[in-house]
Task: structure prediction
Amino acid sequence: MARHRSYSIEFKRQVAQEYLGGESLNGLARRHDVSRNLIRVWIANCEPGAFDDEFQAADLLQQYEAKIAAWISLLKVECAIVGGQGQAASATARC
Result:
């Protein structure tokens, strides 16, 4: 059974730009181990700027992941402070 692979927006743009730069569709498909039809879709999406929305969504996701990581770090610090002061064991158990 075929496996589902996902490709980064940068990779899609790179392959599309290589094709638009004169590289053959067959050569790109073989070199990157991707179907020719998938490359055609990427080329069609690249020309009108369809990847722009995906790129903005990926950037927003990275920003949210960074905020979540910062909150987790802050929570760990607060839990260490609460646990270190010998306050209620239930507070430490939640951390």
User: Anything to note?
Assistant: Helices lie at 9-20, 25-32, 36-46, 51-84, 89-94. The chain has a mean pLDDT of 81. The first helix runs from residue 9 to 20. Residues 7-49 form one domain.
